[in-house]
Amino acid sequence: HNLLHLFSATRKNEVCSIRSKFPNKLPVIVERYIREKTLPLLDKTKFLVPFELTLGQFLCLLRNKIELDSSQSLFLLVADKTMSCMSSSMGDVYSRYRDADGFLYITYASQEMFGAPQPAARPPC
């Protein structure tokens, strides 16, 4: 339990440092879905994202980083919820779903994880 608390405190300090250096950027951690088999791991998991960037634009950015071809789907899960509103700003998503440690956690997968409808899975990049 102490180790978990220490880890959380370290992340909180990291967020404070990031937010003071980059007040107009949001700290986001992106991880591959635990049972994902086809998509590669990202070479980095921490991102600083502008408030006004939309979730759809962020999805496009991730597609480019993962180097997906246009026929492959990419789904995002924010704070364990499937996101369908790709026009939401990252600032809005962050304010609603950020973790207690200050990071916004996003999971990616090649297919729907929980069967919720997601019509905006592939916005035009």
UniProtKB/TrEMBL annotation:
Q: State the source organism's domain of life.
A: Eukaryota
Q: Where in the cell is it found?
A: Cytoplasmic vesicle, Autophagosome; Endomembrane system
User: What keywords is this UniProt entry annotated with?
Assistant: Autophagy, Cytoplasm, Cytoplasmic vesicle, Lipoprotein, Membrane
Instruction: Provide the lipid-modification sites (Phosphatidylserine amidated glycine).
Output: 115
**Membrane topology qualifier:** Lipid-anchor
GO terms classed as biological process: macroautophagy; response to stress
Enumerate the InterPro entries for this protein: Atg8-like, Ubiquitin-like_domsf
Pfam families the record matches: ATG8 (PF02991)
An example Gene Ontology cellular component term from the record? cytoplasmic vesicle
The family note in this entry says: Belongs to the ATG8 family.
**Protein name as annotated:** Microtubule-associated protein 1 light chain 3 gamma, like
